[in-house]
Amino acid sequence: MTTPTELDLTDATAFVRHDAYAFWRDVREHRPVYWHEGDPGFWVVARHADVLSCYADVRSLSSARGTVLDVLLSGGDSAGGKMLAVTDRPRHRELRNLMLRAFSPRVLGAVEERVWERTSRLIRTVARQGEFDFAAEVAEHIPMNTICDLLSIPEADREKLLRWNKLALSSEDAESDRLDSLEARNEIIGYFMDLARHRRGDPGDDVISMIATAEAGGRPLTLEEAALNCYSLVLGGDESSRVSAICAVKTFAEHPAQWRALREGTAAVDTAVEEVLRWATPARHFARTATRDMLIGGRQVRAGDIVTLWNISANNDEEVFDQPRRFDPARSPNKHLSFGHGPHFCVGAFLGRAELRALLSALTESVAEIEVCGEPAPVYSNFLNGYASLPVAFR
Ligand code: HEM
């Protein structure tokens, strides 16, 4: 694999073809904040300290035009100002307070219990098989069901929602796929609008009823806002959790001594979860738009410029992590930025962590050795980091 000094960060294949970690090391050392040419170009922020302060500076760096580079380059996010992740203060705070009520300890406790049940059942089943695809047989079934549990989606609708979501996220290039994907996204929003309308009329003790009936900023959400914010939980929680689970299994298979340490209790499950999150860094970057002229790492950024924050680089910054390319499940402290930082810090972090905790605990109980027995298929994306398939055998 080559180590380029230039990498086209808009190219979905760049990260698979090149040694991106060596690239980022070079960037952190020689030009930690740089202008990436393009139409339009954008700023690239690579050091942990700069990424952290950009996440915190919500007054100068807006999320409302979109938070993913591709979306910003293609004109911005149509959910801006309506969906939590792509909304700025003061509306962001109102929406976030509302959404946080959905994540009460009582709701989360019940959801977490079901995550543990589902995960240990899946692991017990696959542990008896020979070779299998961990992505298809296990990882795919955990996050969507967790979100569906959170939202009390009827069992009968889940398969349909999973199918739409796969289509909506399809990263194929062909025009027909793009149309299918747009259609699937509309189906999901339409589905949540129907559900929100129904539960607004006949509210139950569930999160959609809460979102559909609660007020934010002195008025109830519109049905579209309610639907978009239900959908944002699917968008935020499905793929990122899936690739982290796949990364956990792949990484422990490649590090048998660390796997033994976890099984024998020399490394704790909680610190291992954090190290898996750092190692996986499911979202390579998040992005913002500058609302005023400002300095980032000594570089002059102008109002209107796109600023990209590279978690994948920050999570491997030697200034913060000793020997960052060493996978150390006992690493502590572990100030990774996989869940972001500041006012937009991931609202699903508790669930993301709970899913990994349940997975590692179930695996340590029934799997002595993990072997990767085929070539895993990478995800081609400059945003999502990870694998779409992982052929393995558990012993
Ligand atoms: C926000 C990562 C799981 C829902 C974020 C952000 C990151 C992130 C980096 C900050 C984005 C920004 O600053 O622009 C992850 C990772 C996960 C995960 C790595 C799993 C390992 C989840 C889950 C849910 C969720 C399970 C839902 C149940 C959200 C939402 C936001 C968010 C709604 C927007 C919060 C806001 O803007 O205030 N996530 N996430 N995420 N995440 Fe997660």
Describe the overall structure:
It is built from 16 helices and 12 strands. The mean pLDDT is about 95. It has a 5-stranded mixed sheet. The chain has a 3-stranded antiparallel sheet with strand order 4-12-11. Strands 5-6 form a two-stranded antiparallel ribbon. It is an alpha+beta fold and about 400 residues long. The chain is globular. It starts with 13 loop residues before the first helix and ends with a strand. Bound molecules: protoporphyrin IX containing FE. Protoporphyrin IX containing FE binds near residues 55, 147, 232, 233 and 286.
Q: Main β-sheet, in a few words? A: 5 strands, mixed
Number of strands: 12
Strand order of the largest sheet: 1-2-10-7-3
Q: What is the tally of helical segments? A: 16
Unreliable runs, pLDDT <50, ≥5 residues?
A: none
The radius of gyration over CA amounts to 21 Å
Percentage of β-strand residues: 5-15%
Question: What can be said about this structure in brief?
Answer:
This protein has 395 residues and is α+β, with helices and mostly antiparallel strands. It contains 16 helices and 12 strands. It has helices at residues 14-17, 20-30, 48-56, 69-73, 91-102, 105-127, 134-137, 143-151, 155-169, 175-201, 207-213, 223-254, 256-264, 269-280, 311-314, 349-366; strands at residues 33-36, 42-45, 61-62, 131-133, 215-216, 219-220, 285-290, 294-296, 299-301, 306-310, 370-372, 391-394.
Detail the topology: elements first, then pairings.
Elements: H1 14-17, H2 20-30, E1 33-36, E2 42-45, H3 48-56, E3 61-62, H4 69-73, H5 91-102, H6 105-127, E4 131-133, H7 134-137, H8 143-151, H9 155-169, H10 175-201, H11 207-213, E5 215-216, E6 219-220, H12 223-254, H13 256-264, H14 269-280, E7 285-290, E8 294-296, E9 299-301, E10 306-310, H15 311-314, H16 349-366, E11 370-372, E12 391-394
Parallel strand pairs: 2-10
Antiparallel strand pairs: 1-2, 3-7, 4-12, 5-6, 7-10, 8-9, 11-12
Bound molecules: protoporphyrin IX containing FE (HEM).
Residues 55, 63, 67, 84-85, 96, 147, 232-233, 236-237, 240-241, 244, 282-283, 286, 338-340, 344, 346-348, 351-352 line the site of protoporphyrin IX containing FE (HEM).
